[in-house]
Amino acid sequence: MLTVDVLGPLRVSVGGRQVELPAGRLHVLLAVLAMSAGRAVATDTLATAVWGTDPRGVSRANVRTNIKRLRAAMGSLDGQLIVARSGGYLLSIEPEQIDALRFGILLDEAAAAQHPAAERSRLEAALALWRGAPFEGIRSDWLDHSIAPALQERYLSAVERRTDLNLAEESRRYPAESPDSSSRVDLTQLADLAEQHPLRESLWVRLLRVLESAGRPAEALERYETIRLRLADELGADPSPQLQQAHKELLAGGAQASTRVTPRHHGARMIPRQLPPAFDGFAGRRSELAALDALVEPPSETPSRSPLITVIAGTAGVGKTTLAVHWAHRIARHFPDGQLYVNLRGYDPSGQSAQPAAVIREFLDALHVPQHEIPDSPTARAGLYHSLLAERRMLVLLDNARDTNQVAPLLPAAPGCLIVITSRDHLTGLVMTYGARPVTLDLLPPDEARHLLASRLGHERVDAEPTASEEIVRRCAGLPLALAIVAARAAIQPGYPLGALATELRDVLGALSTGGDADVRAIFSWSYETLSDPAARLFRLVAGLHPGPDSTVTTAASLAGVPVSQARGPMAELTRANLLTEYAPGRHSCHDLLRAYATELTTAHDADRDAARERIVDHYVHTAHAATLHLHGHIETVAPSTIRPDVSVTNLAGPDEAMAWFRAERPALLASLELAADLGLDRHVGDLARALFVFLHRHGHWQDRAETQRAAVAAAQRLDDPVEESRALRNLAWALADMGRFDDAHDTLDAALARSHEDLTAEAWTHYYRDLVFATEGREADALNAARRAHDLFDQLGDQKGRAIALTNLGWHHGRLGHGDRAVDLCEQALVLHQKLGNRQHETHTWSCLADTHLRLGEPARAIPCYRQALDMFREFGDLFGEASTLAHLGACHRLGGDDATARACWRRAHSLLGELDLSTIDQIHTQLATIDTSSANAFRHHQTSIA
Questions:
Q1: Element (H or E) spanning 12, and its range?
Q2: CA 814 to CA 53: how far, in whole Å?
Q3: Residue 693 above 70 pLDDT?
Q4: C-alpha dihedral over 569, 573, 578, 580, to 10 degrees?
Q5: Most buried among 332, 491, 620, 861, by the most CB within 10 A?
Q6: Which of 738, 649, 622, 633 is nearest to 695 (CA)?
Q7: Of 843, 839, 841, whose CA–CA distance to 811 is shortest?
């Protein structure tokens, strides 16, 4: 068996026997093949790695000759180890046989570990593999710039994470216990690494805390002064807030320093605040609130080793969510790391409750985990979620749970968090297995029910008719939902006597005392019967048929097939009647019981239900397409099928409104895609998946992006439409590449080519996507070849737009491979074509590529005007990522030119934009800068942190 170690000097063994290879090209070849173990490496990539970025005069024969030499040097197993593949060579071994790849596998396992001890064990095993710098003694610019930086970054992050875990473990020991050897290892290693990476402040923060923990605060203060002066001299900046905080803790005696655990992720730590708004007019529940308050500060002499879980159980409409949200807001201050919230839809009339894996994916987004750090496996994602909550004090509200099985995967295993669950079921399994504290919510007692009524109608009105008020309270049987609906009816008619209202209730309901579902449905019916015909129909359609959790006036109009102007009045009527709740401006939702009631009504009264469903799908398809055009759309923008005349489209004024609409409607959009498939609207499935692609890409919803494209592929197959199938396969391949599944992406592109059936346009776009996948994979030479094939096909077709887009990418790849003059020439050709065609969106990208090339060539003065041109255009189109990235690069230009003041001004503006973007895009900007100028990348990262 072959093993190859590259985390230090190259070390090779075959069958346990050390193999000494001649230094030079053979070392490079083996290292490159090893880093892609089990996958073919293109001959061009091998040539670039061995002979440099300008391998002129190097033929495939040169590579082949050196491969033969490598096989001979490795002995008798060579034929089985290095295998020729079409266009390249493959090292036929498992990733675990390469120390650098095994290192990555162990880090992934650490991220997925559910307990700190398991995570630390994996980290220790991973770090033990390092014997020195990656590829030490191997001379290859390609390895040094394309592979080694990512390995080094993961190594430093792993060291920092292990330090955090060690500090947390030490803080849990009794004072009599002495630190173990891991602290001394941390200290020596951290001190060395901090000197090697003098501007990486996260290392210095850990070094100060380990020194303080080791009883050496004076040395820690000296170290702080060292880094403070270095930052002032080299960057003209102060230490970051995190480093300053560590200093303050040292000055205060370090009471908190040793117990503080730094977050796993190094981006700006965003604290999620997901609780719904508190309900106006909350009243009563004094005893339940007292019982809940007692849970937050339990009289316990020993600290808990598990999270605190409480289950608020009760019948439908009894006010579980209202109580839970009210109490959560009241105690939120006790949980400084934020609040997570999800409606699990356990009793949704559609029967489609939230799946735990999908909820965990949403929580990871809320915790701002960079997309590239989210594992593909649901099990690994769950482990990452549990690990993150293990180091936080968070409040997690799981609303409307159906059963224990739905909730259990969402429970963290470590103390520090409070989990609040609401359910119609008592969830006895949680009480027995996890020690959950039950709080049963009964019907409101008469005095609290009367207080709730008074809070809605005013004490004067209630006190003026005490007998009628008491009867209303009695007829509603202490059910808050029923009281809210009756109070809404009374509020709509402020001059209507409460006595008359009580008489109506008596006639409709009879003598009610149990408060069961039948009773509350009778109250629904009483309120529903008072609606105008348009409002009644709208209630049935919106509450009974809308695929998403909430609706707007425009979606309601589309469901009803009426103009928006005719829907506004009925929607307002439903809101006044409390049959719909406007929980945010323009967005309406309703209780599950009301949804179930509306579903029954629409089944009985609306024969055109499928037509209404088709209209809402049509609404989402066409509004999403319009929104995508505002976001400078997809490179293969295709108009959807003709819209129905009775469907309304939301009017979006520009990119900001388009992005806000996508964010608000994402659950409904995904549900509408499923609905379209259920209705057999396969053309709409493809249209909607394509329209969602840009938004899901920009916001890092990569799992959703892949799933929607899989649905589009299936729909195209049902339609037997090879053009649409090929297009969907290309989109799916790009989504898979962003998830790091490069082999699957290439297989998917192979399938797209197979479905092209000599369609040169589809073939050209498929090669273009192959270019994007190779570029994402870091295989620049392969990306260049794919871009060439796309360009040649576009040229053959006479497709000038496609040719201009491919020219831009050709220039970009040549620039990254060091062919500066060629890159500039290609980008300038692309600019002329884009301007001639009026294709300003891609012209913007070309200006940016041209600027990057000049900066890479060490010509910041020539790059600046190109960046400024791109910046103006990105602002024109509302592209926040393009604007932030360009400003970051402009800052690098000015810094290289010696103008630090202008550089800081650019970076300050970039930082203000980064707060609106996903962390994965921030990491992408850091990576872009690092490939051009490492010192500028470090300076920008520092500046971003220092003003956070």
A1: strand 11-14
A2: 9
A3: yes
A4: -30
A5: 620
A6: 633
A7: 843
Neighbour-count burial of 30, counting CB atoms closer than 10 A to its CB (0-12 exposed, 13-18 middle, 19+ buried): buried
Q: How many helices (H) and strands (E) does the chain have?
A: 44, 13
| Number of Cβ within a 10 Å radius of residue 478 | 21
2-109+122-127 and 533-606 agree in CATH topology: yes
Alpha-carbon distance of 221 to 227, in angstroms, equals 10
Name residues whose C-beta falls within 8 Å of residue 826's C-beta, 6 or more positions apart in sequence.
807, 808, 810, 811, 814
Q: Mind listing the pLDDT tens digit for each residue in 701-759? A: 778 889 999 999 999 999 999 999 999 999 999 988 887 788 899 999 999 998 887 78
Query: How far apart are the two ends of the chain, measured CA to CA in Å?
Result: 50
How high is the pLDDT of residue 589? 87
DSSP string, 509-530: H-S--S--HHHHHHHHHHHHTT
Q: Which residue has the higher pLDDT, 600 or 946?
A: 600
Q: Name the CATH superfamily, with its identifier, for domain 173-259.
A: Tetratricopeptide repeat domain (1.25.40.10)
C-beta separation of 28 from 139 below 8 A: yes
Q: Which CATH architecture has domain 286-440?
A: 3-Layer(aba) Sandwich (3.40)
Domains of the chain: which residue ranges? 2-109+122-127, 173-259, 286-440, 446-528, 533-606
Average pLDDT in the 848-865 region?
88
Give the Cα separation of 424 and 853 in Å (integer): 62
* Token pair of 209 as six digits: 């805390």
What is the third-level CATH fold of 2-109+122-127? Arc Repressor Mutant, subunit A (1.10.10)
Q: Which of 677, 689, 621, 674 is nearest to 350 (CA)?
A: 674
Task: Give the C-alpha separation, 732 to 743, whole Å.
Answer: 13
Burial status of residue 825 (CB atoms within 10 A of its CB: 0-12, 13-18, 19 or more)? middle
Which architecture does CATH list for 533-606? Orthogonal Bundle (1.10)
Residue 846 corresponds to which tokens in the numbers above? Answer: 């070309």
Among the listed residues 837, 810, 827, 911, the one whose alpha carbon sits nearest the alpha carbon of residue 870? 827
CA 146 to chain CA centroid, nearest Å: 26
In DSSP notation, 602-665 reads: HHHH-TTHHHHHHHHHHHHHHHHHHHHHHTT--TT----SPPPTT-------SHHHHHHHHHHH
Distance CA 858, CA 932 (A): 9
Record the pTM: 0.63
Q: What is the 3-state secondary structure (H, E, C) of 923-946?
A: HHHHHHHHHHCHHHHHHHHHHHHH
CA atoms within 13 A on the CB side of 611: 10
